[in-house]
Amino acid sequence: MGNKLIAGNWKMNFTVAESVDFIGRVKSLIKNVHKTGMCICAPFTSLHALSGALRGTGIALGAQNIAWADKGAFTGEINAAQLKEAGVEYTVIGHSERRHMFGETDETVRLRTAAALKNGFAPIVCVGETDAERTAGKTESVLKRQTVAALTGLSAADAEKTVFAYEPVWAIGTGKNATPADADGTVKFIRGTVAALYGAATAEKIKILYGGSMNAANCADLLAMPHIDGGLIGGASLKAEDFNTIIQAAERL
Ligand code: PGA
Q1: For the chain, which residues make up each domain, given as ranges?
Q2: Is there an atom of ligand 1 within 6 Å of 186 CB?
Q3: Across the chain, where does the E strand assignment appear?
Q4: Residue to probe by mutation, ligand 1, list 172, 210, 246, most atoms within 8 Å of CB
């Protein structure tokens, strides 16, 4: 079992002042983290301030989107150079909220993933089935389609830098997490899908996180599962104590 990655997804929360204040509180809590990877995916407006505030904490900076084009007429988008200048290392791509509310598709996810890798970012590609898809027995076909689409056209060297987050849509923000065994089985399926494309060695190197109502109470059981390489945490990443509890649970494994 490799080291875990704990990524906070702040979504559309926190002003710049609130972001910096939060890091101040997290800094005083996070102690003795030696092996667990940490990252906070913040709103664009907070990125510059956070790159300073995070210095010395061991927490990497992440964004929540990246454009596929280098620059130009793309109102509302943000490009690689802008993110790099702000000190960003990770970017969430294809979160279910973007897929379902903002028209993100498998194809735009593919384009954004390629752009992130081309520019040296680690993409955190979100995949996951809806409640209806799960009930209809389509979980595996949906995950296979989303995973293959994101990786299409990538070399093995690029593919292995891709982080996936398995986020069942019915578990996001609902307080209803997947059971550790179910989440682990599904993450294993995603890894198998990667293995079918690139071979087992590459698939083993890829980090696959679980996301969807991971919190201070259930994190230890989820993170202890053999195939789950970490967590993408929404609600609980907005509470300094809970975020620290999750990081410490990963560190203890
Ligand atoms: P949640 O969100 O932890 O609030 O369920 C996870 C996510 O959407 O990344």
Answers
A1: 5-28+36-64+77-251
A2: no
A3: 5-9, 37-41, 59-63, 90-93, 122-127, 163-166, 208-211, 230-233
A4: 172
Q: The pTM is what?
A: 0.98
**Which residue is it, tokens 């109470």?**
217
Q: How far apart are CA 53 and CA 205, in angstroms?
A: 30
Q: Are strands 37-41 and 122-127 parallel, antiparallel or unpaired?
A: unpaired
Q: What is the mean pLDDT of residues 37-48?
A: 98
Phi-psi category of residue 139: left, alpha or beta, with phi > 0 → left and psi -120 to 50 → alpha: alpha
Lookup result for tokens 């069942």: 168
pLDDT confidence bin for 1, thresholds 50/70/90: low
Dihedral over Cα of 192, 164, 233, 175: its sign = negative
DSSP letters spanning 100-146:
HHS---HHHHHHHHHHHHHTT-EEEEEE---HHHHHTT-HHHHHHHH
Neighbouring-strand partners of residue 93: 125
From the CB of 173, is ligand 1 less than 6 Å away? yes
Please give the backbone phi and psi of residue 91, each rounded to the nearest 5 degrees, phi first. -145, 130
Strand partners, 62: 41, 90
CATH of 5-28+36-64+77-251, one of 3.90.550.10, 3.20.20.70, 3.30.420.480, 3.30.530.20: 3.20.20.70
Q: Is 9 in the pocket of ligand 1 (CB under 6 A)?
A: yes
pLDDT, tens digit, 9 for 90 and up, residues 123-144: 999 999 999 999 999 999 999 9
